[in-house]
Amino acid sequence: MSPLRVAVVGAESTGKTWLTQSLVDVLHVRGQSVHKVDEVLRQWCDRAGRTPQRHEQMAIAEQQAQASHPPGQPVPNTWLLSDTTPLMTAVYSHHLFDDESLYPMALAHQALYDITLVTGLDLPWVADGLQRDGPQVRGPVDTLVRQALERSGMAYRVVYGQGPRRLNNALLALGLAGEDASAQHLREQGQFAINQGRSVWQCNDCSDSGCEHQLFTRLLKQRSAV
Protein backbone atom coordinates (compact mmCIF):
# COMPACT_ATOMS: atom_id res chain seq x y z
CA MET A 1 0.00 0.00 0.00
CA SER A 2 1.06 3.64 -0.45
CA PRO A 3 2.63 5.45 2.53
CA LEU A 4 0.21 7.29 4.77
CA ARG A 5 0.33 10.40 6.92
CA VAL A 6 -0.58 9.12 10.39
CA ALA A 7 -1.43 11.18 13.48
CA VAL A 8 -1.34 9.58 16.93
CA VAL A 9 -3.34 11.55 19.50
CA GLY A 10 -4.91 10.83 22.88
CA ALA A 11 -4.96 11.69 26.56
CA GLU A 12 -1.82 11.64 28.70
CA SER A 13 -0.25 8.33 29.70
CA THR A 14 -1.99 6.38 26.96
CA GLY A 15 1.15 5.29 25.12
CA LYS A 16 1.25 7.75 22.21
CA THR A 17 5.05 7.91 22.09
CA TRP A 18 5.49 4.16 22.51
CA LEU A 19 2.94 3.39 19.80
CA THR A 20 4.39 5.91 17.35
CA GLN A 21 7.93 4.62 17.84
CA SER A 22 6.80 0.99 17.61
CA LEU A 23 5.06 1.69 14.30
CA VAL A 24 8.21 3.42 13.05
CA ASP A 25 10.30 0.38 14.05
CA VAL A 26 7.96 -2.06 12.29
CA LEU A 27 7.88 0.00 9.11
CA HIS A 28 11.67 0.29 9.09
CA VAL A 29 12.04 -3.47 9.50
CA ARG A 30 9.65 -3.92 6.57
CA GLY A 31 11.87 -1.76 4.39
CA GLN A 32 9.73 1.39 4.44
CA SER A 33 10.99 4.97 4.57
CA VAL A 34 9.55 6.78 7.61
CA HIS A 35 9.61 10.33 8.94
CA LYS A 36 8.74 10.60 12.65
CA VAL A 37 7.50 13.85 14.18
CA ASP A 38 8.20 14.19 17.91
CA GLU A 39 6.04 15.96 20.47
CA VAL A 40 6.98 19.64 20.68
CA LEU A 41 5.24 20.21 24.04
CA ARG A 42 7.45 17.68 25.82
CA GLN A 43 10.57 19.36 24.45
CA TRP A 44 9.20 22.79 25.41
CA CYS A 45 8.50 21.72 29.02
CA ASP A 46 11.93 20.12 29.33
CA ARG A 47 13.61 23.34 28.22
CA ALA A 48 11.44 25.73 30.25
CA GLY A 49 11.16 23.57 33.36
CA ARG A 50 7.44 24.34 33.55
CA THR A 51 4.19 23.92 31.66
CA PRO A 52 3.13 26.63 29.19
CA GLN A 53 0.72 29.41 30.07
CA ARG A 54 -2.37 30.31 28.09
CA HIS A 55 -0.67 32.89 25.85
CA GLU A 56 2.07 30.38 24.91
CA GLN A 57 -0.23 27.66 23.61
CA MET A 58 -0.65 28.89 20.03
CA ALA A 59 3.10 29.14 19.43
CA ILE A 60 3.53 25.54 20.59
CA ALA A 61 0.71 24.38 18.32
CA GLU A 62 2.29 26.18 15.36
CA GLN A 63 5.70 24.64 16.10
CA GLN A 64 4.09 21.20 16.21
CA ALA A 65 2.53 21.81 12.80
CA GLN A 66 5.79 23.10 11.34
CA ALA A 67 7.64 20.03 12.60
CA SER A 68 5.59 17.95 10.17
CA HIS A 69 7.29 19.80 7.23
CA PRO A 70 4.16 19.99 6.69
CA PRO A 71 2.14 16.74 6.33
CA GLY A 72 0.39 18.18 3.26
CA GLN A 73 3.70 17.92 1.34
CA PRO A 74 5.32 14.61 2.36
CA VAL A 75 8.51 13.24 0.88
CA PRO A 76 7.48 10.77 -1.87
CA ASN A 77 7.21 7.12 -0.77
CA THR A 78 7.77 8.06 2.86
CA TRP A 79 5.44 7.37 5.76
CA LEU A 80 4.87 10.27 8.14
CA LEU A 81 4.03 9.37 11.74
CA SER A 82 3.34 12.19 14.16
CA ASP A 83 3.54 11.67 17.92
CA THR A 84 0.69 14.09 18.75
CA THR A 85 -0.50 17.08 16.70
CA PRO A 86 -1.68 20.65 17.32
CA LEU A 87 -5.08 19.16 18.15
CA MET A 88 -3.76 18.03 21.54
CA THR A 89 -2.50 21.54 22.30
CA ALA A 90 -5.93 22.90 21.39
CA VAL A 91 -7.65 20.35 23.61
CA TYR A 92 -5.44 21.09 26.61
CA SER A 93 -5.86 24.83 26.08
CA HIS A 94 -9.61 24.25 26.12
CA HIS A 95 -9.47 22.00 29.17
CA LEU A 96 -7.04 24.06 31.26
CA PHE A 97 -7.86 27.63 30.22
CA ASP A 98 -11.35 27.37 28.73
CA ASP A 99 -9.80 28.69 25.52
CA GLU A 100 -11.24 27.27 22.31
CA SER A 101 -9.43 29.63 19.96
CA LEU A 102 -6.83 27.06 18.83
CA TYR A 103 -9.34 24.62 17.34
CA PRO A 104 -9.66 26.15 13.83
CA MET A 105 -5.91 26.05 13.24
CA ALA A 106 -5.50 22.63 14.88
CA LEU A 107 -8.35 20.98 12.99
CA ALA A 108 -7.23 22.44 9.66
CA HIS A 109 -3.86 20.82 10.27
CA GLN A 110 -5.46 17.55 11.41
CA ALA A 111 -7.35 17.31 8.13
CA LEU A 112 -4.00 16.93 6.31
CA TYR A 113 -3.46 13.45 7.77
CA ASP A 114 -4.73 10.33 6.07
CA ILE A 115 -5.64 8.61 9.32
CA THR A 116 -5.89 9.55 12.99
CA LEU A 117 -5.24 6.98 15.70
CA VAL A 118 -6.64 7.79 19.15
CA THR A 119 -4.94 5.90 21.99
CA GLY A 120 -7.48 4.31 24.35
CA LEU A 121 -7.67 4.71 28.12
CA ASP A 122 -7.01 1.06 28.95
CA LEU A 123 -3.40 1.64 30.11
CA PRO A 124 -2.70 2.54 33.76
CA TRP A 125 -1.80 6.17 34.42
CA VAL A 126 1.82 6.80 35.44
CA ALA A 127 3.27 10.08 36.71
CA ASP A 128 5.83 11.86 34.51
CA GLY A 129 6.78 15.09 36.27
CA LEU A 130 5.66 18.24 34.47
CA GLN A 131 4.31 16.26 31.54
CA ARG A 132 1.22 14.88 33.27
CA ASP A 133 -1.48 16.36 35.51
CA GLY A 134 -3.11 13.24 36.90
CA PRO A 135 -5.47 10.39 36.07
CA GLN A 136 -8.51 12.60 36.60
CA VAL A 137 -7.84 14.54 33.37
CA ARG A 138 -7.71 11.56 31.04
CA GLY A 139 -11.45 11.05 30.68
CA PRO A 140 -12.29 14.72 29.96
CA VAL A 141 -9.36 15.09 27.56
CA ASP A 142 -10.31 11.90 25.70
CA THR A 143 -13.86 13.22 25.36
CA LEU A 144 -12.67 16.59 24.02
CA VAL A 145 -10.43 14.91 21.45
CA ARG A 146 -13.24 12.75 20.12
CA GLN A 147 -15.75 15.61 20.13
CA ALA A 148 -13.38 17.84 18.16
CA LEU A 149 -12.79 15.15 15.54
CA GLU A 150 -16.46 14.29 15.27
CA ARG A 151 -17.55 17.93 14.97
CA SER A 152 -15.21 18.28 12.02
CA GLY A 153 -16.37 15.03 10.44
CA MET A 154 -12.92 13.45 10.68
CA ALA A 155 -12.76 9.68 10.90
CA TYR A 156 -10.51 8.16 13.54
CA ARG A 157 -9.64 4.75 14.96
CA VAL A 158 -9.31 4.09 18.69
CA VAL A 159 -6.41 1.75 19.52
CA TYR A 160 -6.75 -0.52 22.55
CA GLY A 161 -4.70 -3.41 23.91
CA GLN A 162 -1.60 -4.07 25.96
CA GLY A 163 1.92 -4.17 24.48
CA PRO A 164 2.13 -6.20 21.24
CA ARG A 165 -1.65 -6.42 20.97
CA ARG A 166 -1.90 -2.62 20.97
CA LEU A 167 0.71 -2.42 18.25
CA ASN A 168 -1.01 -5.07 16.16
CA ASN A 169 -4.35 -3.29 16.49
CA ALA A 170 -2.70 -0.10 15.24
CA LEU A 171 -1.12 -1.94 12.29
CA LEU A 172 -4.49 -3.39 11.35
CA ALA A 173 -6.07 0.09 11.60
CA LEU A 174 -3.48 1.26 9.06
CA GLY A 175 -4.36 -1.59 6.72
CA LEU A 176 -1.12 -3.44 7.44
CA ALA A 177 -0.50 -7.00 8.53
CA GLY A 178 0.12 -7.53 12.22
CA GLU A 179 3.27 -9.09 13.60
CA ASP A 180 3.48 -12.75 14.49
CA ALA A 181 5.64 -13.90 17.40
CA SER A 182 8.65 -14.56 15.15
CA ALA A 183 8.54 -11.14 13.48
CA GLN A 184 8.08 -9.44 16.83
CA HIS A 185 11.09 -11.27 18.28
CA LEU A 186 13.33 -10.35 15.34
CA ARG A 187 12.30 -6.70 15.52
CA GLU A 188 12.93 -6.49 19.23
CA GLN A 189 16.33 -8.13 18.93
CA GLY A 190 17.33 -6.00 15.95
CA GLN A 191 16.06 -2.66 17.25
CA PHE A 192 16.83 -2.85 20.94
CA ALA A 193 18.97 -5.97 21.64
CA ILE A 194 18.00 -5.84 25.29
CA ASN A 195 18.89 -9.43 26.13
CA GLN A 196 22.50 -8.92 25.07
CA GLY A 197 22.70 -5.38 26.39
CA ARG A 198 24.08 -4.07 23.09
CA SER A 199 21.99 -0.90 23.04
CA VAL A 200 20.51 1.59 25.46
CA TRP A 201 16.75 1.68 25.90
CA GLN A 202 15.46 5.20 25.42
CA CYS A 203 13.08 5.24 28.40
CA ASN A 204 13.01 9.04 28.37
CA ASP A 205 11.13 8.84 25.07
CA CYS A 206 8.53 6.33 26.29
CA SER A 207 5.11 7.26 27.68
CA ASP A 208 3.67 3.78 28.01
CA SER A 209 3.62 2.36 31.53
CA GLY A 210 3.26 -1.14 30.11
CA CYS A 211 6.19 -0.73 27.73
CA GLU A 212 8.12 -3.61 26.25
CA HIS A 213 11.24 -2.70 28.27
CA GLN A 214 9.43 -3.35 31.55
CA LEU A 215 7.79 -6.48 30.19
CA PHE A 216 11.09 -7.97 28.99
CA THR A 217 12.95 -6.94 32.13
CA ARG A 218 10.45 -8.87 34.22
CA LEU A 219 10.63 -11.81 31.82
CA LEU A 220 14.43 -11.94 32.01
CA LYS A 221 14.33 -11.85 35.82
CA GLN A 222 11.85 -14.72 35.83
CA ARG A 223 14.06 -16.77 33.49
CA SER A 224 17.21 -16.11 35.53
CA ALA A 225 15.41 -17.29 38.67
CA VAL A 226 14.56 -20.65 37.09
Q: How would you describe this protein?
A:
- This protein is an alpha/beta fold and 226 residues long.
- It has a single domain (5-173), classed as P-loop containing nucleotide triphosphate hydrolases (Rossmann fold).
- Helix content is 45%, strand content 11%.
- The chain has helices at 16-29, 40-48, 57-66, 86-97, 103-110, 138-151, 164-173, 181-191, 212-225, and strands spanning 5-9, 33-37, 78-83, 115-119, 157-159.
- The protein has a five-stranded parallel sheet, covered by helices on one side.
- Helix 6 links the parallel strand 4 and strand 5 (157-159).
- Helix 4 (86-97) runs antiparallel to helix 5.
- The chain is globular and about 45 Å long.
- Residues 194-224 have low confidence and may be disordered.
Summarize the structure.
This protein has 226 residues and is an alpha/beta fold.
Provide the fold topology.
Blueprint: E1 5-9, H1 16-29, E2 33-37, H2 40-48, H3 57-66, E3 78-83, H4 86-97, H5 103-110, E4 115-119, H6 138-151, E5 157-159, H7 164-173, H8 181-191, H9 212-225
Parallel strand pairs: 1-3, 1-4, 2-3, 4-5
